Amino acid sequence: MTRLTPQNRLRDDLRRLDGKGYGAYKDLRGGYEFPRYALFIDHVQGDPFAAPSLLRLRLPQRVAQFPTDLFSTRPRRIGIEDYLTRAFGAACHARGRPNRGSGKSGRILTAACSQEVLERTSARVTPDHVEIRFFLGLPAFGRRIAGRQAEEMFFQDLPAIVESSLLYPSLPAPEVRRHVETVEDAVALRGGLADRKLVAFITDSALLPRESGVSDRPLQSDVVPFESPRSLRVDLEGPNCGQLPGMGIPEGVTLIVGGGYHGKSTLLSAIAHGVYDHIPDDGREYVVARADTVKIRAEDGRFIEKVDISPFISNLPFGRDTRAFSTPNASGSTSQAANIIEALEAGAEVLLLDEDTSATNFMIRDQRMQSLVAKDKEPITPLIDTIRALYDERGISSILVMGGSGDYFDVADTVIMLDHYRPRDVTEQAKQIARDHPTSRRVEFEGHFTDLRTRIPLARGVQAQRGRRGRVKIRARGEDGISFGDEQIDLSAVEQIVEQSQVRACGWMIHRAAERLFDGKRTLPEILDLIEQELDDKGLEAMLPNLAPDFARPRRHELAAALNRLRTLEVKQPL
Ligand code: ADP
Ligand code: MG
């Protein structure tokens, strides 16, 4: 433990530094003893316009007084840490006095949280203490230190923020508890899916639609609450919510059909987000999917490095090898094929596909087209002919939004129709129609999903260093991409990323993994296992550069997706 400096020394220093050049702030680095907490100034920004300084507050539990049952298990701890991050952020916002000088002067910020509850670096709750991490813009006028303003921030604002957001006695206890219990319930519901041979569960009265295409908050008006069809109704149980009725989607191949604008994509998207826990009142807090559910889409233009897409694509022009398919510029269908194979490689159990974002020629080839374009002239084996093999050979279930092709009735186990946002089980009807109107299309699949080639990523293709001094440069560009050294990783089609904090973490974790785990022998799934093991054992910080608040844990699927989209990636396939 570092020795703490008495708070009065900080006050004296700030008075002494007032009006001096900004660089003198560097002297403040260190830990300070305040009456109720320790304050750590870990990193001091170089100027008022640079990324703000990095600080931590640590309160002993003697002061913070959180009951131990609020962090006694992993889901509960993640829940309370998420709650405190939000509470602290809201208190900073409420206290906000933006006009404290130039640049980022006077700002106090923590992670920006979405509707999802994630494992974050922004807060730690242990039996011993509560720690919160945040950014603080050390104030200045021009490049002169604004010591009085800084004093206000350290001696008035922060103590008030702590008082209102980090002490259990001053928090609304029922709300805190509800946040933690909601997370715990969602984890339990998700954990209960496999035993019941379900891939997803949507509770009755869930509110699925979102406010807008750019807001993930619940739509407020004219919402039709979810109501399960009787034949698919199940009860799942959580420790706090008790038995919840809802629609269970069974393993196998499920179609979601229905007219345009009847809520198909909204349902699929809620399922895709069901891999995460949600905050109370999100509307989807009891909508869960198996943890290894991956949304798949077409992504033309993406980079692909030696992926075995042969079950889907063979006989390409110029005899290109589809067991080790590489391209800097994939087509809609080859990108979708690669996205599926890469998802299997990373351990997906359930695939979600929406016709809105799929390549038509990847999904379907009807009888007439089969007659006109012979199989030996069509490299693509459409999903309709491969989707059963995915389930039969590898146990991969799938949920497809497919309003456009009834040919899929032949291969579906369950067909759900949405009618004015209300689901109906139309499996029997669809099967009857398939019998009454048989298609004469031929099944074209001849391959297998059991002998896909494995890939070993090589460290030399992963370069986060940049510039003459070779400094590591990794930046998130919103939720849509990473600047990684000299490269740009495009994540705009990786739909299950919910926060920039995950993107930032992905970048660093790939960099750290390449340095330490890419040994030229380990396969990608082995590396993903090791990363997850390390994160479980040592916490996120083990693979991150500092204690900034704005990192959140990505799933292995998003880590793999980011690596697979790094255009300098090199892999070898052991033969
Ligand atoms: P589809 O994929 O069937 O064409 P969408 O899922 O895109 O339909 O939904 C169409 C519109 O209806 C969207 O604006 C969506 O927000 C809205 N919507 C979806 N589900 C509901 C619901 N349960 N209640 C009210 N509006 C909904
Ligand atoms: Mg749609």
Polypeptide structure, described:
With 575 residues, the chain is of the alpha+beta class. It has three domains: 4-171, no CATH class; 293-436, no CATH class; 456-572, no CATH class. The protein is 30% helix and 22% strand. It is built from 14 helices and 32 strands. Strands 1, 2, 3, 4, 5, 7 and 8 form a seven-stranded mixed beta sheet that branches. A six-stranded mixed beta sheet has the order 19-22-23-16-24-25, with helices on both faces. A hairpin with a 2-residue loop joins β24 and β25. α3 (74-94) crosses α4 (147-165), α3 (74-94) crosses α5 and α7 (332-346) packs across α14 (556-564). The chain is globular and about 85 Å long. The model has no long low-confidence stretch (mean pLDDT 96). Residues 208-209, 219, 222-224, 258, 260-266, 421 line the site of adenosine-5'-diphosphate. Adenosine-5'-diphosphate (ADP) binds at residues 208-209, 219, 222-224, 258, 260-266, 421.
